[in-house]
Amino acid sequence: MMRLRVSARLLALGWLLGASALSAQPAPEPLRPEVAKPLQAAQEAIRAGQGAQALAHVRVAEAVAQPNAQERYLILRLRAPAAALAGEHSQALADFEAVLASDRLPATERPALWQALLQTAQRANDPAAVVRVVRAQQAEGAREPRLWLALAQAQTTLKNDAGVVQALQGLVADDEAAGRPSAEAPLKLLAATQLRQGDEAAYVATLERLLRHHPQPAYWADRLARLRAAPGFPPRLLLDSWRLARQASALLEADDVAELLRLAVQAGLPAEALAVLDEALSRGLLSASSAEAARRPALQRALAQDQAGLAGSEADARRAPDGQALLNLGQAMVSMGQTEPGLQRMAEALARGGLRQPDEARLRLAVARWQAGQAEAARSEWRALAAGPAGPVADLARLWGLLAAR
């Protein structure tokens, strides 16, 4: 759970305000000696960190009959930090709120009083008071991130998921408006709360913010697993999603590698399958004695056969009525390391037309270009696809763009 760190000098601001209260402003009404003397003693006790003694001195001033308005105000100003020091949090909360409501409080001192009030509510472990204080301060225009975080923590304690989400979405909105990345901890709390609420769309949006600002393999694995499980996700894009997982270092288990190998072989790409296998062995995701590793000789034979038949395959592709075979050939050549000729054939296939899924072809060409070091061309294509019709291709293009932006 996200925790806010409260300074060891939790109420220092409040104490300093109390310590200067007697000399802060010219008094509209005279301060009588019988009130001034115990209040001065209270100030000294506050400076010494002696809350109980400070409160005792304030009580002496309170006992003086018929206090004028300035005396009542200064008693409040000193009783608030004294009570906070003494651990009488309810009294301190009430007094700080009363001081803030006073028209005698200079506007320049309001931010410090608000901070003292919020810290008092936190010290009192009173989440409802924290919520009330933060909302009141925000109503005056305060937008500091710490206020949203305090509000989210209080709502978490109150088990108010809707309140947590509202607070953290406010923080994210302010961060985006200010052009700063949101911190990872509040984003994780926001995502966990949205997931608990069953709000899949909101959870995915927050997960993508985590990918943008705090990319981790586990976040990538989660996002791509949800993409594959989404209604309407076509099986023909499974290989594309696992390729992205590989590039994001989000192949986390042997089963992930086995699935990518299966799909690459199924697509007729033994060179890609061999590259995946070698990488998994080097990372320790597969052992040399695994069933997947045992497929190496067969994959090598298939690759040799494909390389030997490239010329015939190209001739067949060029005789085909559409560009699909030429696109597949180009992708195979890129996987074999024949990058430039492969890219040329993929681009030619797109220009030729007649493809069954042209946007998917554009996605794959962009990926191949990015892997070839043509980053700007790839990003431009992904941006165009992401801005197109909503669906799995747009989602994959947006996610590739996030990965490439790292």
Distance between the termini: 27 Å
Biggest sheet details: none
What do the pLDDT scores average to? 91
Shape: elongated
Question: Helical content, roughly?
Answer: over 70%
Structural class: mainly alpha
Beta-strand content estimate: under 5%
Give the total of beta strands. 0
**H and E order:** HHHHHHHHHHHHHHHHHHHHHH
Uncertain stretches: 1-19
- Rg, nearest Å: 33 Å
Helices, by number, come to 22
Compose a concise summary of this entry.
Helices cover 72% and strands 0% of the residues. With 406 residues, the chain is an all-alpha fold. The two termini are 27 Å apart.
Question: How would you characterize the overall build of this protein?
Answer:
The chain is mostly helical. Helices cover 72% and strands 0% of the residues. It has helices at residues 12-20, 33-47, 51-62, 69-86, 89-101, 110-123, 127-139, 145-157, 161-178, 184-197, 200-213, 217-229, 238-247, 254-266, 270-283, 296-308, 310-319, 324-335, 339-352, 358-371, 375-386, 392-404. Helix 2 packs parallel to helix 4 (69-86), helix 6 runs antiparallel to helix 7 (127-139) and helix 18 (324-335) packs antiparallel against helix 19. It is elongated and about 110 Å long. It starts with 11 loop residues before the first helix and ends with a helix.
Characteristic key phrases:
406 residues; mainly alpha; 72% helix; 0% strand; disordered N terminus
What is the topology?
Elements: H1 12-20, H2 33-47, H3 51-62, H4 69-86, H5 89-101, H6 110-123, H7 127-139, H8 145-157, H9 161-178, H10 184-197, H11 200-213, H12 217-229, H13 238-247, H14 254-266, H15 270-283, H16 296-308, H17 310-319, H18 324-335, H19 339-352, H20 358-371, H21 375-386, H22 392-404
Helix pairs in contact: 1-2, 1-4, 1-6, 2-3, 2-4, 3-4, 4-5, 5-6, 6-7, 7-8, 8-9, 9-10, 10-11, 11-12, 12-13, 13-14, 13-22, 14-15, 15-16, 17-18, 18-19, 19-20, 20-21, 20-22, 21-22
